[in-house]
């Protein structure tokens, strides 16, 4: 993954993880696996765990310790009401930005065609 992609992903990964948790509660490794299933193959578990700590501290998720067959209990994260509100805001912001970027891209492409 290029540096530009990494930087853009840093700004959106929190919303992406909350969107994953909106579908179904999960523990860290499951979230990483779901991200990879969605094409975010370069995301490492350490990045996800650090993000989970941040969103837990911010009160965006609820955490339940669930017994594990292998080792200590797992922390299962689920989206709570505050996280749901944050996710709604994320999608609104994403839509706004995506629309503006697409308009800008078309404007630049049209300007370049006229200049040829």
pLDDT < 50 runs, ≥5 residues? none
**Alpha-carbon Rg, integer:** 18 Å
End-to-end Cα distance, whole Å, is 33 Å
Major sheet attributes: 2 strands, antiparallel
Helical residue percent band: 55-70%
β-strand amount: 5-15%
Average pLDDT level: 92
Q: Considering the protein shown, what is the CATH homologous superfamily? A: Winged helix-like DNA-binding domain superfamily/Winged helix DNA-binding domain
- H/E series: HHHEEH
Number of helices: 4
Any idea of the CATH class? Mainly Alpha
Number of strands: 2
CATH fold label? Arc Repressor Mutant, subunit A
User: How many distinct domains?
Assistant: 1
Strand order across the largest sheet: 1-2
**Shape annotation:** elongated
Structural class: mainly alpha
Quick synopsis:
Helix content is 68%, strand content 10%. It contains 4 helices and 2 strands.
Task: Kindly describe this structure.
- Helix 1 crosses helix 4 (81-115) and helix 2 crosses helix 3.
- A two-stranded antiparallel ribbon has the order 1-2.
- It is 68% helix and 10% strand.
- The protein is built from 4 helices and 2 strands.
- The longest helix has 35 residues, at 81-115.
- The chain has 116 residues and is mainly alpha-helical.
- Strand 1 (61-66) and strand 2 (74-79) form a beta hairpin.
Give a topology summary.
Elements (H helix, E strand, L loop, with lengths): L2 H21 L4 H10 L7 H13 L3 E6 L7 E6 L1 H35 L1
Antiparallel strand pairs: 1-2
